Input
Amino acid sequence: MKIAIVGFGVVGQALVRLLNERSGELYRQHGFAPRIVAVMDTRGAALSAQGLEIAALLHAKASDGTVAALADCGVAGVDSEQVIAECGARVLIEATPSSLRDPQPAIRHLKAAFRAGLHVVSVNKVPLAVALPGLRELANYNRVMFRFSGTVGAGLPVLALAQQCALGDEILSVRAVLNGTTNYILWRMHEAGLDFAAALAEAVRLGYAETDPSADIDGVDTAMKTVIFANVVLDRAATLADVQVAGIRDLPRERIAAAAAGQRVKLLAEFGEALRVGPEEVEAHGPLDVPANINAVSLSLRHGGEVTLRGPGAGGVETATGVLRDLLDIWHALGSAP
Amino acid sequence: MKIAIVGFGVVGQALVRLLNERSGELYRQHGFAPRIVAVMDTRGAALSAQGLEIAALLHAKASDGTVAALADCGVAGVDSEQVIAECGARVLIEATPSSLRDPQPAIRHLKAAFRAGLHVVSVNKVPLAVALPGLRELANYNRVMFRFSGTVGAGLPVLALAQQCALGDEILSVRAVLNGTTNYILWRMHEAGLDFAAALAEAVRLGYAETDPSADIDGVDTAMKTVIFANVVLDRAATLADVQVAGIRDLPRERIAAAAAGQRVKLLAEFGEALRVGPEEVEAHGPLDVPANINAVSLSLRHGGEVTLRGPGAGGVETATGVLRDLLDIWHALGSAP
Output
């Protein structure tokens, strides 16, 4: 299957490495033989109808900072929408960085792919958080598949689990810890009695938080995941504007201290009548009391009681496993035409 | 879609109730309109090409102890294999009771269905535990689908979750609490300091254990689930003979007392090189330390770390939601021909 990748950062690189490592097994078990025909970054593209050589591609990116430096296949300063439309790929992986202030060029890439009849796997939460209902409609209109399971829980199959539960049962409500950075901070405030600033500094030092942690600590990252979950699993045409968001920035140590012995403060996403994100108390040692940077999603089912999935919910290679899951899903749904 | 049910106990009755309750929604969301054309119990059958009336069916079973008592549609003393082959159903739900000493008539029912070209959902662990590799081959040979997700975890989608994880990642090992009865007993031995006999007596009184709890406390129920999981998720052609099984019958209170403060004894299924079931220590308050009759499955993934699913893993209506999930899975895989 011919694949194009736009955006070649941590996840894009982890993905091509994963495809390379597992190629024998993917072919044996699934008849799946991915061929990367185009990779784009901000400075250019590497193109090959026969499929790019992975080791050389990674080397060019590492040594020259762009895939455009790849010998024979590199091209500087391309129009990424044109490449998407003309590179002959069956699937686009959208992995550009983008921010809420500017969800482009990701949205343009998604639209270019849909219009050109490419199936899409998105790694990027931002375009989904601001425009998922419209994007899904556009994908349906163009009869292409649109997957993005790595955007919620990275490698943890949060959306797939919830969809399975919703098939046989009914999801009454959802409570979830969807951000590892804030969970680490709150966990350390409880465990070690740190104040917010000290816990944040530790999280940055250990690589659990970025140097600008705003999207995490202000609850925006959790809110974006809430939007995606609500669209897919609860079938609500929500965008970020529909979520009430409170973060944990400068959460006073007193809030932690005030929690009863049997309780812990978590940054919780709650899906009931309304979609809400904010600090909430949960039962200590209960399903949602996960340590360090672990994520947890708890579904309250009409017949099946409380079902909880927990595990690491971030990271480049973890997200790449989510993308691979989506690719195989598309591959099997297509039958098996190359 | 025309459905036949053989065995009309707790799960079979919960299933028809569930299909009835959710009929509007199942049709709206999935275009799924189940029609129960045959129900068999040990004394006879109820048959209707137009579809049986659910309320009347349940009433006949409750008041007369057999579906054969249903007015107009009831027939006493039928040959169930013949009914399976001739009732015109597209799918058989196998829900007869059976024991390891005698896995019949379940295996005969499954084979009759495969030969007649019916897809099958099995609720029954026993035939799978003794003959799953051969049964799957027979289903493949006859080009029919064979599902049994309710046999492991009841409504908890244990098999589906593990399959999702195995798509993008690699499962290195599995540790799981798959039996609610024994978990309840061990939990009470820890929490309340009860000895084995007192904890078992309490579990029986509260309905967490059957009056003959042998299959649970001797580890056989857990071992059967281990076999099913290993076949489906790890692709091993295992049967019950391949599992080393130890139970918790008469587990001395000293074993519990000897567990360190940070540990709890659980009846654990472990899937590494070997398949093993037996009492093992797990980390207190860790992912596998689940209370009461809760189940938990922890997958160790090459890239994704430790991923754990927990929730109630038994019960009639819970298992019925697992059967419904399988039915919808078959329905969507078929396209949508009636």
